[in-house]
Write a structure and sequence with these properties.
The complex is a heterodimer.
Chain A lengths: L15 H5 L10 H11 L1 H18 L1 H8 L11 E2 L4 E2 L22 H37 L1 H16 L2 H12 L9 H32 L3 H8 L4 H37 L11 H15 L1 H29 L6
Antiparallel strand pairs in A: 1-2
Helix pairs in contact in A: 2-12, 3-5, 3-12, 4-5, 5-6, 5-8, 5-10, 6-8, 7-8, 8-10, 9-10, 10-11, 10-12, 11-12
Chain B lengths: L38 E2 L5 H4 L1 E2 L8 E6 L14 H10 L4 E3 L10 E3 L7 E2 L5 E5 L14 H12 L10 H6 L30 E5 L2 E5 L7 H4 L10 H5 L17 E7 L3 E6 L17 E6 L3 H9 L5 E2 L7 H9 L1 H6 L4 E10 L9 H10 L2 H8 L1 H4 L1 E3 L26 H10 L7 E7 L2 H15 L4 E7 L4 H5 L3 H6 L2 E9 L5 H5 L22 H11 L4 H18 L2 E8 L8 E2 L3 E2 L5 E2 L5 E2 L3
Parallel strand pairs in B: 1-2, 3-12, 3-13, 16-17, 16-18
Antiparallel strand pairs in B: 4-5, 6-7, 7-9, 8-9, 10-11, 11-12, 14-18, 14-19, 15-19, 20-23, 21-22
Classes of the chains: A mainly alpha, B alpha+beta.
């Protein structure tokens, strides 16, 4: 700071060297390190991250995990069902050592195995759909923000259009129309998964697209972009070598925040009966079955998938929020 | 007919009527339709075979409830079975089902007619005489012209649609066109004649006589005349601004009750019709002073109101919610109040013989043995909420039902050894992959999963294709070309007869000559010479009991084709308040309580 004129500078005679005396060599921290330090201090985000990692492991190793319990998600256990009511025999939804979360009403399928495989379905669809929306969103957002003018107008209006679209209704209609077709090389089952990925991914790209566009708008005026341009760098190079690396932060943050939205979207579609095919387990589908009146006589059947969905979405949101704070503390919540 | 759980439409566009002549026994003239039968004790399911709490006490308000309103109150436009039972309160047609529990309720009795219709020797001309002194709710007398006019309204399908169209099929002058419509007569609104009575195939030689000239022999015509469309409609009123499509908001009563107020989708209030005379009515007692029907879209709430005596009867009759079911069955007092009737529906798996490998009968028989009927039963709600295991197509509530099992499969569990043996005979010892069509309703999905799981036991892999529940029967599996294109080897199906005879049940679903390109109900395209021949033989048999035996033969012949796998005879668990009297199940129309017979112990 500048000392006022005529004031004795005796109070500010401390020598910087003296302060640093006795400390080791000074090295700068990378942005990543700083972010990690900040993230480490956010206990909620860490807990969320741990749950996310656990979920991913469950999804990847669904087969081995269910075989540990010794159950299969699609095997009927009619002997465990009271035929008069369709409810599991025994208390708490038929929880036993063989079926640690009990069994489904009506057909007696193992609930734990279905929850685990349901996690797999949720994760596959949510991550692939997020991939689709991030790729489309980032490219469209960068192009719109960087070029501006009519390109920006076209892309932005397209985003407005999609955001204003009654997408749930549209998604239901699409699955109803295309749901029974088979894509070449895919089974009927996987075609449906691919269709869900495309639908969910396509409808959520404007969210990330808008943010990337805004970021690009501010970044394109930065000195390093000017410098690159003055050195004769082409548009593609500036977009992908200069701008993209500086957008990794927001991309990571918003991708993490889109994943839970997509999980919920998949669950909603399954709940409405246009999700994955029978008998593939899905949390939304299980909730829908439970909502047919079983929740009153067999609450476990609704609580288990409901909790799974709640914990998953909560974990992704906590982790995503923490990540945002860590990468960009100035941004508003 | 329609049932609320299934949402299926039964528009049968039969162009050729197989023949019967003469009168169905059991509905001959003179047999009155008064409620008879002993008072049944209040034990579980007493109302299915007897009358609970017999009483002649009059007065009080009957509180009806359901989760949705009727499709229409216009007698020519309603196709829900329970709404046909509602019609018995305010509309009377030429014939009606006897108001009696058990199989006696399957008989038809003359209602407006003084005797059951009589057929000419060739079975094509039916004559009815009306009772004398009949009046509409405004006091104007009812003549045969109003009855004819009511029938004519069905022909105006652009205005009056939704109901059964048998009268078009059999009365269209010159026959119907390829899609089952009538080009030669388009209903009374397009009718240029001064009295709007231009339908040449129905004659009214005098005010009390009506003569039908059918274009085919129809032995079951007296049953068709029980359908609400044979209710008379006042011509001037229907031609006014209150008629036509708006007639459903206030149909003019000729029964014991008339509309006081109606707000669609919410409530309906019926009060006594002072011009109705008990002496002119064969069975209606009209005990209560007022009938109030309330729509309550919360199914759970409907059940709770019945149990706590706030509402009297759920008119839909499709059974209580699963949670209420466990409450009722575990509480002896509630259980004693409940009934568990057959609804008249058979749930079955249609096996499309034109989709490989089901073109080979051995592959079809393999499915007969491999499919687990028990799993299907559990998926539909178990033995009480779902129904009994079915071994034949004709449900127990239809005349001619016989117990036989063409493919004994360990009481519905499946006989896997036999299934594998037939798979080997079919040349597919290791099984195959096929598609199964089902509706997207909760029960549709549950039974599909059950079939998928049970067929997997013998190596048959099933891919499930779901169709929207509201258009499943009409569009998803109702067009054979689509079914074949989509490779639906198996289809989840259900059928309830529009009237309780073998003809009413079988004619649309297994007759090879009635496979339609659109709106088809012979989903599996059964076309077997022996089945067709037996159908003709049974429908031309005049004696009801002899015909019933022949319909059982049709049933056996159908089972021999292995194109259908009967799964369950539908049942429903129903309960009412403790305040109603004379409660019993009317077997003829979907196993629903006969609302018009009910009285109240307290207001």
């Amino acid at each position: 700071m500048t000392a006022p004129l005529g004031v004795e500078g005796s109070a500010s005679t401390a020598q910087p060297e003296a302060v640093l005396e006795g400390m080791g060599s000074v090295s700068g921290r990378s942005l990543g390190q700083i972010a990690w330090l900040r993230l480490k201090r956010d206990k909620a985000a860490l807990a969320g991250g741990a749950v996310v990692v656990l979920l991913l492991l469950v999804a990847v190793f669904a087969g081995p995990i269910t075989s540990l319990e010794g159950q299969n998600p699609n095997t009927f256990h009619s002997d465990l069902i009271d035929p008069n009511y369709g409810t599991p025999r025994g208390s708490f939804g038929g929880i036993s050592s063989g079926h640690i979360l009990g069994v489904e009403p009506v057909n007696g399928r193992d609930l734990f195995a279905r929850i685990v495989y349901g996690a797999q379905v949720s994760m596959i669809i949510a991550f692939l759909a997020t991939g689709v929306s991030v790729v489309i969103g980032v490219v469209a957002g960068m192009v719109a923000g960087y070029f501006g003018g009519w390109v920006d107008s076209v892309v932005s209006r397209m985003m407005d259009l999609l955001l204003a679209f009654p997408l749930l209704l549209f998604a239901i209609a699409l699955v109803a129309v295309l749901g029974d077709d088979k894509a070449p090389g895919l089974s009927a089952d996987n075609t449906r998964v691919a269709l869900l990925v495309v639908i969910i991914g396509f409808f959520s790209w404007p969210y990330i697209g808008r943010i990337i566009r805004g970021q690009t708008l501010s970044l394109r005026e930065k000195e390093y972009v000017e410098a690159a341009r003055s050195q004769g760098a082409g548009h593609v190079r500036i977009l992908f070598r200069e701008l993209l690396p500086n957008l990794v932060g927001p991309i990571l943050v918003y991708a993490t925040l889109i994943v839970p939205t997509n999980i919920l979207f998949e669950a909603a579609l399954s709940f409405l009966g246009v999700g994955v095919r029978i008998p593939r387990p899905s949390w939304g589908g299980m909730l829908s079955d439970a909502a047919q009146g079983y929740f009153q006589i067999d609450p476990v059947f609704m609580v288990v998938p409901g909790l799974a969905l709640f914990v998953t979405v909560m974990a992704f949101n906590l982790f995503g929020d923490g990540l945002r704070d860590a990468l960009d503390p100035r941004s508003n919540r | 007919m329609l049932s609320l759980t299934t949402g299926q439409r039964r528009v049968v566009r039969a162009t050729v009527a197989a023949a019967v002549l003469a009168v169905i026994a059991g509905c001959s003239s003179g047999s009155g339709g008064v409620v008879h039968g002993k008072s049944a004790g209040n034990v579980f399911d007493a109302g299915s075979s007897g009358i609970r709490d017999v009483s002649t006490k009059t007065g009080g308000t009957l509180n009806l409830i359901a989760d949705s309103d009727c499709d229409s109150y216009d007698p020519a436009r309603t196709y829900y079975g329970h709404c046909w039972v509602m019609q018995r309160l305010f509309s009377r047609g030429l014939m009606a089902y006897r108001s009696a529990p058990g199989t006696a309720g399957l008989d038809v009795v003359p209602d407006l007619a003084e005797a059951a219709g009589t057929a000419s020797a060739d079975g094509k001309t039916w004559t009815y005489k009306l009772r004398s002194g009949l009046k509409f709710e405004d006091g104007t007398p009812i003549t045969s012209k109003e009855v004819k006019y009511g029938i004519e309204r069905v022909f105006a399908q652009s205005v009056i649609n939704g109901g059964p169209v048998y009268v078009i099929t059999y009365l269209c002058p010159g026959g119907t066109n390829a899609s089952g419509g009538c080009d030669s007569y388009r209903g009374p609104y397009a009718d240029r004649s001064a009295d709007h009575l231009g339908l040449s195939t129905v004659e009214t030689p005098d005010d009390s006589t009506i003569v039908f000239h059918l274009n085919a022999k129809v032995g079951d015509w007296n049953y068709i005349m029980t359908l609400p469309a044979s209710t008379p409609v006042p011509i001037a009123y229907d031609q006014s601004s209150k008629g036509g499509a708006k007639y459903e908001f206030h149909p003019i009563s000729d029964g014991p009750y008339k509309f006081q107020s109606y707000s669609p989708g919410k409530s309906l209030t019926l009060v006594r019709n002072s011009y109705w005379q008990a002496s002119s009515d064969p069975f209606r007692k009209a005990l209560v002073d007022k009938v109030v029907f309330t729509v309550d879209s919360n199914d759970q709430d409907v059940d709770n109101r019945l149990i706590s005596n706030i509402a009297d009867i759920d008119i839909a009759g499709v059974g209580v919610q699963v949670s209420t079911q466990s409450k009722i069955l575990t509480n002896p007092q509630l259980k004693a109040r409940a009934d568990n009737p057959f609804t008249g529906y058979t749930r079955y798996l249609a096996v499309e013989s034109h989709v490989a490998p089901f073109d080979n009968i051995n592959c079809r028989i393999a499915v007969e043995y491999a499919a687990s009927k028990v799993d299907w039963q559990t998926a539909r709600g178990g033995p009480i909420g779902g129904g009994d295991i079915a071994t034949s197509m004709l449900p127990p509530s239809v005349k001619g039902h016989e117990d036989f099992d063409a493919y004994p499969d360990n009481n519905g569990q499946g006989d896997l050894e036999k299934a594998k043996a037939y798979l080997a005979k079919c040349g597919k010892p290791n099984g195959f992959t096929t598609h199964l069509a089902t509706s997207s309703s909760a029960k549709g999905k549950a039974v599909a999963a059950a079939v998928q799981n049970s067929l997997k036991r013998v190596g048959i892999n099933v891919i499930i294709d779901e169709g929207d529940a509201s258009t499943y029967y009409s569009e998803f599996i109702g067009a054979p070309s689509v079914v074949r294109k989509k490779d639906f080897g198996l289809m989840v199906a259900g059928w309830g007869a529009d009237w309780p005879t073998g003809y009413g049940f079988f004619s649309s679903i297994v007759d090879g000559r009635k496979i339609l390109s659109q709106g088809n109900s012979n989903y599996q395209e059964t076309n077997d010479p022996k089945v067709n021949e037996l159908i003709d033989k049974a429908s031309s048999t005049t004696d009801a009991d002899a015909a019933g035996k022949l319909w059982a033969d049709v049933d056996r012949a159908v089972m021999a084709t292995a194109t259908v796998v009967p799964m369950t005879y539908d049942k429903a668990l129903v309960i009412s308040s403790e305040n109603v009297t004379n409660r019993f199940i009317l077997q003829s129309i979907g196993g629903i309580y006969d609302f018009q017979a009910l009285g109240k112990t307290a207001p």
